[in-house]
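Work Package 4 report. The design task specified in the project plan requires that, given a folded chain encoded as structure tokens, an amino acid be chosen for each position. We show below one input record used in the internal validation round.
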């Protein structure tokens, strides 16, 4: 894993140097779009709706639209804002763990000790475990101030970024305001069903079956030869093996012909060719059959002229 952040956890006068690592990763198969007729890649262009031109990424600014007016925010405007570059994870308070609603959790990160001694790290970990508390912290990550929960997971300190309170939508559904009567028998049967499915949670028992089937499908298509050359999907013609050598040999032949035509004797041309083409002889032999057809075609024309002369 590669650390995405480096700094220190601070609470009171205690300073715990740490490195931050992303605790999760995405294993979904990456798919892109192609034309169903020829398999060509589909590309999206950044097109200006005013002038109709395709705009380069470096010529694009950001903007805010309030529905009636648009405010353009340039890179210079953004650079003028005070960026958060703090290297501290500041503990604001310690709260009972059950008070943090899981709906507020966003991304998870592991904290690794970043000092010769891990004593301060272990002290903080054991303090959280023994008090059954979670530390609410503030940190600057990717130039944004974030609120997070610092807790213990499998003997490792974990930071879970939290959504801000105004980012969690209110669950207001009129249908839930209606009074519904549940009988004792219905509740008892429901509890009985729950008891029949009671178990200890083991996440390793569950796999993403869709992604597994998708990978199986892709592998089957590859084994059956039902695939396209990737370069062809971009509209590019694959380079023939030895094409560069053929061009070099053709250039050498033309150079020799030019020397002969300029008055140089054949021995001069013969001496010049080996100097440039000695290392390319094996490749030239492989490509010779490809050049044979074009060389024979011109030879037929003189024969035709002789018959005409007779």
């Amino acid at each position: 894993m590669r650390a995405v952040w480096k700094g220190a956890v601070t609470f009171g006068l205690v300073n715990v140097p740490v490195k931050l690592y992303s605790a999760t990763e995405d294993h979904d198969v990456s798919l892109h779009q192609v034309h169903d007729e020829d398999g060509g890649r589909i590309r999206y262009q950044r097109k200006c709706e005013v002038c109709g031109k395709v705009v380069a990424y470096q010529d694009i600014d950001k903007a805010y639209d309030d529905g009636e007016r648009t405010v353009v925010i340039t890179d210079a405007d953004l650079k003028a804002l005070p960026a958060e570059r703090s290297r501290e994870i500041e503990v604001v308070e310690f709260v009972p763990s059950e008070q943090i609603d899981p709906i507020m959790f966003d991304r998870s990160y592991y904290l690794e000790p970043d000092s010769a001694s891990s004593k301060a790290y272990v002290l903080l970990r054991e303090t959280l475990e023994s008090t059954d508390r979670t530390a609410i912290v503030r940190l600057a990550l990717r130039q944004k101030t974030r609120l997070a929960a610092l807790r213990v997971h499998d003997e490792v300190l974990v930071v879970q970024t939290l959504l801000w309170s105004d980012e969690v939508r209110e669950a207001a559904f009129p249908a839930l305001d209606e009074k519904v009567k549940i009988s004792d028998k219905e509740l008892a049967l429901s509890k009985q069903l729950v008891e029949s499915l009671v178990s200890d949670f083991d996440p390793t028992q569950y796999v993403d079956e869709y992604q597994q089937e998708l990978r199986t499908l892709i592998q089957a298509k590859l084994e059956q030869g039902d695939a396209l050359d990737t370069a062809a999907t971009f509209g590019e013609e694959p380079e023939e093996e030895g094409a560069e050598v053929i061009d070099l040999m053709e250039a050498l032949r033309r150079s020799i012909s030019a020397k002969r035509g300029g008055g140089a004797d054949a021995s001069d041309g013969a001496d010049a060719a080996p100097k440039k083409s000695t290392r390319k002889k094996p490749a030239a032999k492989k490509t010779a059959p490809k050049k044979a057809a074009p060389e024979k075609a011109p030879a037929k024309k003189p024969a035709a002229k002789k018959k005409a002369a007779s």
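Strands lie at 5-11, 14-22, 62-65, 70-73, 88-96, 105-113, 133-141, 144-153, 156-162. Validation will be extended to a larger panel in the next phase.
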